[in-house]
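Before drawing any conclusions, I looked closely at one protein's amino acid sequence and its backbone structure tokens, quoted below without any editing.
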Amino acid sequence: MAPESQLPFPDEHAHFGEDVGSLPFAVVTVSDTRTPETDRGGRWIRERLEEAGHRVVYTRIVPDEVEAIREALEEALASEAFGVLFTGGSGITARDVTVEAVLPRLEKVLPGFGELFRMLSFREIHARAMLSRAEAGVVGRKAVFLLPGSLNAVRLAVEELILPVVKHLYFELHRH
């Protein structure tokens, strides 16, 4: 994409939120098998957020069960976290229920997140990208992201979609 100065109609909102400092995050891993020692995706998210200057204020590993996921969501929303990242349970197997657990709680869905995630995934995994049910949305003034459980998918979502926009998202959700 051309730099903003070269765009025919510069985006007057492009820099809103750049002065937002460190943001607090919650990271929830949904898995029947992962432990703190084997949770590579959750650990990578936490480390990458901290490298980017943010803080992780809540972490949890929960089984692929609707009630456990909803409980973790409510705990994360009750924390100081602005962004809540779920990893796992967004596929199509019978045990993948993160979307069913979280989607009803979202007040606004951000369909562009899932659309862009699948588009970017297509470059790497081709038609299998359509099997992802990655989602994002808003609850109050907090952002919620539902990511696949694979480390490559987590990296893609965090690096290409979440980190580049999270401060602007915070700005938009907190302006009057």
The chain is about 40% helix and 20% strand. The first strand starts at residue 24 and ends at 30. The chain has one domain: 22-174.
